[in-house]
Write a structure and sequence with these properties.
The chain is built from 13 helices and 13 strands. By secondary structure, the protein is α/β, with parallel strands linked by helices. It folds into two domains: about 260 residues, TIM Barrel, CATH 3.20.20; about 90 residues, no CATH class. The strands form three sheets. An eight-stranded parallel beta sheet has the order 3-11-10-8-7-6-5-4. It has a three-stranded antiparallel beta sheet with strand order 9-13-12. Strands 1-2 form a two-stranded antiparallel ribbon. A hairpin with a 5-residue loop joins strand 12 and strand 13. Helix 1 packs parallel to helix 3. The longest helix has 19 residues.
Length: about 350
């Protein structure tokens, strides 16, 4: 039996970061289970008020729902609990304030450059993580933070082109295979971060325990892993959502153009096939939840689609997923009783794979 090596983000010691998955895929059950196994459990912080049926002001209800999710996870674990936020969210400020006030251990910023994030920290215990897809982005964020706030990020998370969800690369580069590799970006950011005495975590295409070993060979301290945690018993998504991973072949993992103006990676299904044919799902934009979304030209509402999917209604939504989602099978993800394996079982497997050097990268 192998064990995953640990690394530190400030005074936090963990063996991996479970990537935040919105809307509601990584909630209280999954993040607390990961935290109980020595990882950092990360809540996906997008549109939780809508997911849980809260009524009232969009920004206020989402912040309340995020607080509820954090508090519930805290009751289930005394491990490391964090939140993932997208900078392009129209209610980003409310969510950042709520997460800091709830004293989460780590806030990971993605979906845009969080150039003003330190103003929310106010000297509290919360550590700051930034998702970057280039050395240029890492340098820009660091210089802005240091100049204005006299702080720098506590951890850099380098996300490569094989990740799921919204991606920080140009669509054409992803399609043509001209996007920089995870290894090349990671090595450059590691060299930069070493001079700042900050750890680097790599993400995007991390699936087996041996991938962690390979990433450490590039100089990274550890990894962020999301897709592998979907097909587990504690994942907060409906089983229909999890089963999308079990049915998917490699050809079903596709790139899409998201209404938010970013490329994304998802599992092809009838909903996305209809979109690809140019058809449109009728919707009314109740609020401009993502500032970069052009609802007047969109074929569907991205938030509605993701909420529908996590609730199991894949006829009206789809599942974001990383490149390796097709590797999930009934044999590898179900136990002898036909139930999804637990996070504890998965973490033990990752440790064994780390020892054997089993890789997907």
């Amino acid at each position: 039996m192998g064990a995953l090596p640990t690394f530190k983000i400030g005074d936090l010691e963990i063996n991996l970061i479970q990537g935040g998955m919105s809307v509601g895929v990584s909630g209280r059950r999954l993040v607390s289970a990961v935290a109980n196994e020595g990882g950092a459990g990360i809540i996906g912080g997008v549109a939780l008020g809508l997911l849980h049926g809260y009524s009232g002001n969009y920004a206020k209800t989402n912040a309340k729902a995020l607080r509820d999710e954090i508090r519930a996870a805290r009751k289930m674990s005394d491990g490391v609990i964090g939140v993932n936020l997208m900078r392009v969210l129209s209610d980003y400020d409310n969510l950042a304030e709520a997460a800091v006030e709830e004293e989460v251990d780590l806030i990971i910023n993605g979906g845009g450059l969080p150039l003003d994030f330190p103003k929310f920290l106010k000297g509290g215990k919360t550590k700051s993580g930034v998702i970057v897809s280039s050395l240029r982005a890492a340098k820009l964020i660091t210089r802005k933070w240091e100049k204005k706030y006299f702080v720098i990020p506590d951890v850099f998370i380098v996300e490569g082109p094989k990740a799921g969800g919204h991606l920080g690369f140009k669509y054409d580069d992803l399609i043509n295979g001209t996007a920089s590799s995870l290894e090349s970006i990671a090595r450059s950011v590691v060299e930069y971060a070493n001079g700042l005495d900050r750890p680097v975590v790599v993400a995007g295409g991390i699936y087996y325990g041996g991938d962690i070993q390979k990433a450490r060979g590039w100089g990274a301290s550890g990894v962020q892993m999301a897709t592998r945690f979907v097909a587990t018993r504690e994942c907060d998504a409906h089983d229909n959502f999890k089963n999308e991973h079990l049915r998917a072949d490699e050809k079903d993992i596709v790139l899409i153009s998201s209404p938010v103006g970013m490329p994304g990676r998802a599992i092809l299904n009838p909903f996305l096939e209809k979109i690809d044919r140019g058809e449109k799902y009728d919707f009314n934009c109740r609020w401009n939840c993502l500032r970069t979304c052009n609802s007047k030209k969109s074929q569907y509402c991205i938030i509605d689609a993701l909420v529908n999917a996590v609730k199991g209604n894949l006829d009206k939504g789809f599942a974001f997923a990383g490149t390796n989602a097709y590797r999930a099978t009934r044999e590898s993800c179900l136990d002898s009783d036909g139930k999804f394996i637990t996070v504890k079982t998965l973490m033990k497997r990752l440790g064994d794979e780390y020892s054997r050097g089993q890789i997907s990268l």
